[in-house]
Amino acid sequence: MQLTGLTDEHLVEQFLQGEKAAFEQIVIRYEQKVFQLAYRLSGNQDDASDLAQEAFIKVYRYLDQWRAQAAFSTWLYRIVTNTFLDDMRKRKRRPLVAISLDATIPTEEGEITREFASPEAGPEQEYLQRELQQTVQAALAELAPDYRVALTLRDIQGHTYEEIAEITEQNLGTVKSRISRARAALRQKLTETEQYASLVRQIK
Predict the structure, then answer these.
(1) pTM score
(2) Which numeric CATH code is attached to 104-203?
(3) What are the start-end ranges of the H helices in the chain?
(4) Dihedral angle at the C-alpha atoms of 128, 137, 31, 55, nearest 10 degrees?
(5) CA 32 → CA 29, 72, 165, 177, 186, distances in Å?
(6) 136 with 129: CB under 8 angstroms?
(7) Tens place of pLDDT per residue across the chain (204 aa)
(8) What is the pLDDT of residue 120?
(9) Which of 169, 178, 171 is nearest to 150 (CA)?
(10) Is-contact 26 7, C-beta < 8 A?
């Protein structure tokens, strides 16, 4: 049977009927997106690989529990984020978060677009850009895991508030409040950092 053109729902049906190759197709379809989300949350490739692998193992075990009332991707991302949060609670540590190159930078005057050095940029500008990214990463690492998940899903992954509410199983008001507080906390941490303010001025 040709599986590549099947919808997520049909792939799940085929898998539950004994077609193991259907699950392989699900992995192929989502492995890049799952790894990207895992990397944004964990901040390094090794932890991201472990997180993605553990998430897919859970998907394999509990695929019969998915209900088509929710998008399969929403259910899948929920497993990834819950696995991350569970792991954080167990290890009681906060790894660094990778920063989207397209993410905006919070400043006292509002948010500005990060402009990374072009190939023609000099060594000094490249150094400043790396330092700025590391400073933002360090600030994000200090946020609570729930805040990190919310910011990653909204500001890096680009999910809507409604999608985040489904993924995190929180009501819409909680999601909006959590994202707002996370942004404020990140902004405060950054604007209180002398190195950050200096780097922003130099890069501007």
Answers:
(1) 0.73
(2) 1.10.10.10
(3) 8-16, 21-42, 45-62, 72-91, 123-141, 145-151, 161-168, 172-191, 194-203
(4) 170
(5) 8, 15, 23, 29, 27
(6) no
(7) 678 889 999 999 999 999 999 999 999 999 999 999 998 888 778 999 999 999 999 999 999 999 888 899 999 999 999 999 999 888 765 444 444 444 444 444 455 444 444 445 567 777 777 777 777 767 777 889 999 999 989 987 899 999 999 999 999 999 999 999 999 998 888 887 776 667 666 665
(8) 55
(9) 178
(10) no
Closest by CA position to 135, among listed 99, 88, 92, 100: 99
Same fold, 8-91 and 104-203: no
CB 186 within 8 A of CB 106: yes
Q: Where are the domains of the chain?
A: 8-91, 104-203
CATH code of the region 8-91: 1.10.1740.10
Cβ atoms within 10 Å of 64's Cβ, excluding its own: 9
For 66, residues 6+ apart whose C-beta sits below 8 A from its C-beta are 12, 72, 75
DSSP bridge pairs for 110? 107
Looking at residue 92, its pLDDT comes to 67
CA distances from 127 to 88, 117, 122, 123 (A): 32, 9, 9, 6
